[in-house]
Design a protein that fits this description.
Number of strands: 11
CATH architecture: Alpha-Beta Complex
CATH class: Alpha Beta
Distance between the termini: 30 Å
Helix content: 25-40%
Number of helices: 13
Strand content: 15-25%
Radius of gyration: 18 Å
Structural class: alpha/beta
Largest sheet: 9 strands, mixed
Strand order of the largest sheet: 3-2-1-4-5-6-11-9-10
CATH superfamily: Ribonucleoside hydrolase-like
Amino acid sequence: MTTRIIVDTDIGTDVDDWLALAFVLGSPELQLEGITCVYGDTLLRARMVLKLLHLAGRADVPVMVGASQPLLRRRPVYWEGKEGAGFLTPSDETLTPSGERAVDFLIRTVMANPGQIHVLAIGPLTNVAQAFIQEPQLPERVAHLTIMGGAVRGHEGLGLPYAEYNIASDPEAAHIVLTAGAPTTLVPLDVTTRVTIRREGVVRLRAANTPFHEVLATQVERYPPFVCRGATYLHDPLAAALVVQPQLVELKSLHVDVETEGQHAVGMTLMREPDDDASSNVQVALSVADVEAEALILDRIGGEKQ
């Protein structure tokens, strides 16, 4: 069965967005309807996506520019305009995304196809929140929403930050999205930090011997955490993988709130068992079959087995 999907991304220096898009492109079960870009220099991000699609032979996929600032503009954008180093060149400035706004595309596509469009959100949730505000029926019309974001921080996750980056970049948007009533799966740091790509994975990518895979391999190797550790986490690819194989993780229905105030915990995802006062609003991934997930991701992004 084919799943129709829209990917909402803040593709940039962190290579996990690149690998998530490669996973979607390499999965025959997924029909990619379009890609929307969010947060910061979204035109720059859209050009990165367009070039990556051209290299993959998928110039047919529409790419839309979305929100550049957080919903309430209460926090500065991190690292704005610094993305694309080593990938985009001056000639790529001619790459032109669709003239349709990301929010309008999300609304138009989901409303015209009720119950058929899965949204994979792997960046700050500003575009999705704006779409939910603009079209109140959208949460009940979307087939499913899979979000990479948040942190449970159980006893084994005390080394994780209080607030995960995607949620902390626009906590007000995250609050709107997680309380809107859409069928939602949240894929937090507790599970994404258990799935990695290592040097042997980069060798597999490069062995595919295409310009597309060479770019992926190079971007992984350039990513500072990979330079330091010889490995990097597959945050966004794991979220993408769960669209295809949700059984890779243990899911639990929880009540999730997002902290929007405070000195230390802005953007923190607060999770608890549902009760009469706080019903379940999100399915949260709590554990992952890490070996199986890593194998699936590497297979789908196109690396030949050695």
